[in-house]
Task: inverse folding
């Protein structure tokens, strides 16, 4: 059975999210024993904080996200959290499932719930931390915080503003690049480490840039647990090896994000800088702008 699970890991890595969902839904329908084994392995790894390890196997992370989506994607539809009722699953990833919520008056919100298979105490700590950051950072470019609580006394949830806008993508121009840079420095100046500086973690809403997920935030010099999550596509190499996030790792991720969003010329400038950028390096704003010629 273990070899069969490994075979599935290898197969899903090559699939996109939609194909992965269909593939695993078929397993759930046709092979209940294998489905239970997949869930069991995830639960066992999470008892050792395996899924949240900074050395997490990427295919395991993909499997967690997909199993979570299939297992509970419809379970909370129609359930009320604070003033909002969950109406549809909006997205999934990391350690949260995001539902679009709607109040009786028709206003919208995002309801964040934990993915299943995660150890309850770990999940509650993460959600409590995130809720505190929302409260403490309401003067920063983050979504409005509505409430947090425990569904049925067991499952933590966070309700926050639904921010309408566009996820960052290539070709948005120099002004957007400057907004990203200024936003990251604003958090750093307040002693906040973002942990996930990537295009998908920002929304351009009208004339403001909003950091939409606070789940990876920490305070500078804070002692973090070993199961801290990270974005494998935009993380510094030392973070992938288990070093906690810092201002330097945020800036490495910022440079990767700038390279992703900017034109080829700026991307080449950034690539040259990253060759020698280490875990103790930190650029001033003036130095960073000089590198990318803005």
Result:
């Amino acid at each position: 059975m273990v070899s069969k699970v490994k075979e599935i890991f290898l197969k899903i890595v090559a699939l996109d999210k939609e194909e992965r969902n269909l593939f695993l839904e078929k397993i759930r329908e046709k092979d209940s024993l294998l489905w239970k084994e997949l869930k069991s392995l995830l639960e066992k790894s999470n008892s050792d904080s395996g899924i949240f390890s900074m050395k997490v196997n990427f295919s395991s992370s993909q499997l967690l996200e997909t199993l979570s989506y299939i297992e509970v994607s419809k379970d909370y539809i129609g359930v009320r959290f604070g003033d909002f009722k969950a109406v549809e699953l909006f997205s999934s990833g990391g350690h949260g499932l995001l539902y679009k919520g709607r109040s009786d008056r028709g206003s919208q919100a995002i309801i964040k719930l934990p993915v299943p298979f995660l150890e309850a105490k770990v999940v509650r700590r993460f959600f409590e931390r995130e809720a505190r950051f929302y409260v403490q950072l309401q003067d920063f470019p983050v979504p409005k915080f509505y409430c947090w609580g425990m569904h049925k006394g067991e499952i933590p949830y966070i309700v926050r503003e639904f921010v309408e806008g566009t996820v960052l993508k290539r070709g948005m121009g120099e002004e957007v690049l400057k907004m990203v840079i200024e936003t990251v420095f604003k958090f750093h100046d307040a002693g906040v480490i973002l942990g996930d500086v990537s295009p998908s973690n920002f929304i351009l809403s009208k004339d403001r840039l909003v950091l939409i997920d606070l789940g990876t935030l920490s305070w500078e010099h804070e002692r973090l647990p070993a199961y801290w999550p990270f974005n494998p596509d935009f993380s510094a190499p030392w973070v992938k090896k288990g070093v906690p996030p810092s201002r330097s790792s945020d800036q490495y991720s910022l440079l990767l994000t700038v390279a992703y969003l900017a034109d080829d010329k700026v991307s080449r400038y950034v690539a040259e800088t990253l060759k020698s950028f280490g875990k103790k390096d930190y650029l001033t704003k003036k130095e960073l702008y000089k590198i990318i010629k803005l």
